[in-house]
């Protein structure tokens, strides 16, 4: 069972502002039945640009309903400029936190708010705005959404991207692409917000690749190996070839070949470059 | 609040009779059955009795029973044993609706060079036996098909499948974790090589199970070490668990009539009552071949986790095929294999009854469930009027 906070439980069992609004000034809609959760947000906005009322309709789990409920509470009385600043983190915080696998519910709240604000500004209130490149076909997630979640929440792994955006949680075909996006964001190559729909990712420079390989090995791979009593040392990076030397329990372990291929190489391919090969130093 | 426990396919209450027999083995009779003193020997006698009771319940010989720690251990042991006994055969057949104990192992074996055929099911969750027959190859080492599905309760025709597979000289394994104790099973008339059961699904405690290996079937142990279980499963026996399992097997056989009459009638009343009272609700799985205690019902436009948490406020325990209840984001692989639309799969709830389920408990569910669904549907942006086509391609 999920460990929900009392606030999440309260907003789920006693949702605030559930229902529709016939005379809404702005409507934002995200998600779909097929994807397992969906949120329709209605806002009433006065002439001074202050949100006077907010309502929601949600299809989803307890944390999706709670995120929607708390968001409507947060929005009431805010100016449009203040509302624009609300991030998924603020929603999660207002709930006293969410299980990490449920963070996408807070992201859905933020995206519905975005859609509503755009709707108010005159754009169409359509679900699934095709903004940017469609990365995850299963859940309809674009690179723009993924990059935003990475930046605003400091995400570093594929798993975290899935927790926050659902991208990659289905068939898995987009894992490689998410890895590239992560690599770009982490290497700072895309530090400046990209224009939506901005074509293919820039290839990494040698220096960027080396930095990133070192970072992933130090921060992710070695701690994981150490958990099993093993370790490895980075010997050399030659273009896309990474040469390592095994240490600790990995030495002479019959499974070490698998560790190199199934874990080290796979991880580096996911996070840095799909063409990386890992060899053991002789 | 005493829970209304309708999640017996997840785990069951330990029967009081079982508890009574196992407690002394946790307490005063702590000896090791392998020891050369009568104190240990007396515990060895209890293990022997449990083995005989288990064999009796399944219609096999005591020496064909290996006690294990759980269903997953039994499944892993059986499938790996069949593959190791036939190293030149590199193919296995299983279904898309198996429990992860088999499915995840099959996926793992694929990375180790074993070719795996995954058989699909139709909209009612039934296998196509012609497809199964066609999938058997010269290099097929083992066929693994579950006896009954944990989510829908659909029962596969195992005696027929076993005969078909054995006729081709291929080893046959069945994960019978959900079937044992719920429907009559006799290994006397069924050419199964390996059958797996788990104690905690039939009112014994967690941490004990059994693997049946037909006499004459080649066997390679999974746990290597001591001589326990005649060298087929190392590790000091879980004596309280084994004693409990023996008693639970005896009770299961005695109660199989009640399960298929009284419990089945309660299940049917629950199912028809819910479908009649709640619009846009459908039953998942073949009504003609199902476990007597299980019903899986899909409620459109609402999400399963939310349903479960509202039911929880009434003390009602059930489970869901929804993605949101597990760490994964996709709804149940069983419902997807059956082609249950996403609009239904996310809102699927499984109720699984037991011999302890009462009329009054079913009344409570029938009373509260319509309100729960209504409340969530009122909050949902979807309804029959806005029925949208799934836009996801997964």
From TrEMBL, chain A:
InterPro entries: BFD-like_2Fe2S-bd_dom, BFD-like_2Fe2S-bd_dom_sf, FSCA_dom_sf, N_fixation_NifU, NIF_FeS_clus_asmbl_NifU, NIF_FeS_clus_asmbl_NifU_C, NIF_FeS_clus_asmbl_NifU_N. Keywords: 2Fe-2S, Iron, Iron-sulfur, Metal-binding, Nitrogen fixation. GO terms for biological process: iron-sulfur cluster assembly. Binds 1 [2Fe-2S] cluster per subunit. GO terms for molecular function: 2 iron, 2 sulfur cluster binding; iron ion binding. Residues 134-184 form the BFD-like [2Fe-2S]-binding domain. Residues 3-123 form the NIF system FeS cluster assembly NifU N-terminal domain. Residues 213-278 form the NIF system FeS cluster assembly NifU C-terminal domain. It holds the Pfam family NifU. [2Fe-2S] cluster binds at residues 136, 138, 171, 174. It comes from the Bacteria. Fe cation binds at residues 35, 61, 105. The keyword tRNA-binding does not apply. Its cofactor is [2Fe-2S] cluster; Fe cation. May be involved in the formation or repair of [Fe-S] clusters present in iron-sulfur proteins. Belongs to the NifU family. This is Nitrogen fixation protein NifU. It comes from Desulfolutivibrio sulfodismutans.
From TrEMBL, chain B:
The keyword Iron applies. It catalyses: (sulfur carrier)-H + L-cysteine = (sulfur carrier)-SH + L-alanine. Its cofactor is pyridoxal 5'-phosphate. GO terms for biological process: amino acid metabolic process. Keywords: Iron, Iron-sulfur, Metal-binding, Pyridoxal phosphate, Transferase. It comes from the Bacteria. It is an enzyme of class 2 (transferase). GO terms for molecular function: cysteine desulfurase activity; iron-sulfur cluster binding; metal ion binding; pyridoxal phosphate binding. It holds the Pfam family Aminotran_5. Its EC number is 2.8.1.7. InterPro entries: Aminotrans_V_dom, Aminotrans_V_PyrdxlP_BS, Cys_deSase_NifS_bac/arc, Cysteine_dSase, PyrdxlP-dep_Trfase, PyrdxlP-dep_Trfase_major, PyrdxlP-dep_Trfase_small. Residues 4-364 form the Aminotransferase class V domain. Belongs to the class-V pyridoxal-phosphate-dependent aminotransferase family. NifS/IscS subfamily. NCBIfam families: FeS_nifS. Homodimer. Catalyzes the removal of elemental sulfur atoms from cysteine to produce alanine. Seems to participate in the biosynthesis of the nitrogenase metalloclusters by providing the inorganic sulfur required for the Fe-S core formation. This is Cysteine desulfurase. It comes from Desulfolutivibrio sulfodismutans. The gene is nifS.
